């Protein structure tokens, strides 16, 4: 992993995202409702008042048990990198009911003194010639443009902001006050992994994540729109024309409290939308056709990197920035590469635990 690539990857991420633009215009007809009478809760069922900390402190606190099973991983009808659909079996495991929240991550930082990658400055001696402003700690922030003059060039809405990190999501002056129950963001892979290890857990494989995201539904169903049969939003996404107009019909223009939207069939919340989530698989476009049991992704040694390209892992689920005219990756099979040393304003994670004792 290269710290320096944290900077280079801004452009790479932008390039990766630009290929998702479809140029479609659509305004979703969705509505949401919150319970105005909800009292402070330790569980995310009334999420706007949820503390962000699951009840209890046991090994599986805040987690859901996912019985092992078989499913079709990948998709042959959507994007090339999702091919080929193939049979996969996963053993039982536990997974966080919701994305790791600011409150949960704060507990980790307070207990360990951990400093995230976005909070660390670069050593100028190790990066000769790098502009001073890029040596400063920071991260990539989405800033909604008022006008688009350079086509799909993502630098029009993604900016490297010095001082942006999980405590200051949009940079100096911003804070997470009042957002304890929202997903932590600006998390690089090693940050997510460090948290998971501290909890005695790990990050999900892509197969585990995708199986859990299906929630018991068939992979072959229509996952193209993040709304239910009544037109109600089932995930925090972007309504309108990305990146200039968000009608905000789902109630949240940015990140939403975890659990605001209806859980899937396993009781998991925000698997799709809200923030992208790290998996432990190294990224390679596409899947092999062969059936697999508990796959953990390709061997890093088999992945060819372009000159100057950083190693990347798979992120899943899409985010509040995915719209019908852009990204559209709020589907279980959807996937995207992410440089391991780059967090962003729309990227978080959740953890898994392999079963202990008898299932
Ligand atoms: Ca939204
Ligand atoms: Ca998510």
What does this protein structure show overall?
The protein contains five helices and 14 strands. With 359 residues, the chain is of the alpha+beta class. A four-stranded mixed sheet has the order 12-11-9-13. Strands 1-4-14 form a three-stranded antiparallel sheet, with no helix packed on it. Strand 7 (240-241) and strand 8 (245-246) form a beta hairpin. The longest helix is centred in the N-terminal third of the chain and has 15 residues, at 4-18. It is globular. Residues 7-40 have low confidence and may be disordered. The structure holds calcium ion (2 copies). One calcium ion binds at residues 99, 270-271, 273-275, 277, 317.
Task: Itemize the secondary structure elements and their pairings.
Elements: H1 4-18, E1 63-66, E2 69-73, E3 86-90, E4 93-96, H2 102-112, H3 132-135, E5 138-142, E6 158-162, H4 189-198, H5 206-214, E7 240-241, E8 245-246, E9 276-282, E10 292-293, E11 312-316, E12 336-339, E13 347-348, E14 352-353
Parallel strand pairs: 3-10, 9-13
Antiparallel strand pairs: 1-4, 2-3, 4-14, 5-6, 7-8, 9-11, 11-12
């Amino acid at each position: 992993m290269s710290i320096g690539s944290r900077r280079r990857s801004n452009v790479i991420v932008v390039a990766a995202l630009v290929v998702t633009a479809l140029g479609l215009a659509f305004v979703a007809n969705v509505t949401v409702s919150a319970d105005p009478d909800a009292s402070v809760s330790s569980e995310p069922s009334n999420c706007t008042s949820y503390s962000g900390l699951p009840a209890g402190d046991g090994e599986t606190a805040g987690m859901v048990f996912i019985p092992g099973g078989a499913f079709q991983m990948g998709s042959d009808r959507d994007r090339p990198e999702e091919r080929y659909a193939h049979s996969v079996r996963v053993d039982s495991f536990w997974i966080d009911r919701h994305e790791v929240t600011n409150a949960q991550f704060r507990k980790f930082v307070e207990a360990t003194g951990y400093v995230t990658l976005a909070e660390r400055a670069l050593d100028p001696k190790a990066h000769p010639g790098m502009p001073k402003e890029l040596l400063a700690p920071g991260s990539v922030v989405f800033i909604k443009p008022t006008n688009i003059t350079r086509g799909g060039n993502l630098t029009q809405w993604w900016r490297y902001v010095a001082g942006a990190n999980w405590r200051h999501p949009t940079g100096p002056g911003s804070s997470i006050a009042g957002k304890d129950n929202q997903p932590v963001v600006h998390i690089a892979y090693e940050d997510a992994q460090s948290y998971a290890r501290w909890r005695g857990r790990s990050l999900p494989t892509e197969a585990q994540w995708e199986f859990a995201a299906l929630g018991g539904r068939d992979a072959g169903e229509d996952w193209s729109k993040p709304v239910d049969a009544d037109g109600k939003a089932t995930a925090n996404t972007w309504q309108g024309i990305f990146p200039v107009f968000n009608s905000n019909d789902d109630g949240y223009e940015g990140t939403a409290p975890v659990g605001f939207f209806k859980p899937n069939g396993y009781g998991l919340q925000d698997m799709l939308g809200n923030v992208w989530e790290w998996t432990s698989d190294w990224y390679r476009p596409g899947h092999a056709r062969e059936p697999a049991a508990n796959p953990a992704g390709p061997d890093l040694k088999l992945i060819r990197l372009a000159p100057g390209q950083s190693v990347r892992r798979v992120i899943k689920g899409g985010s509040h920035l995915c719209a019908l005219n852009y990204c559209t990756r709020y589907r279980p099979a959807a996937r995207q590469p992410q440089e391991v040393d780059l967090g962003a304003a729309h990227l978080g994670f959740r953890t898994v635990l392999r079963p202990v004792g008898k299932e």
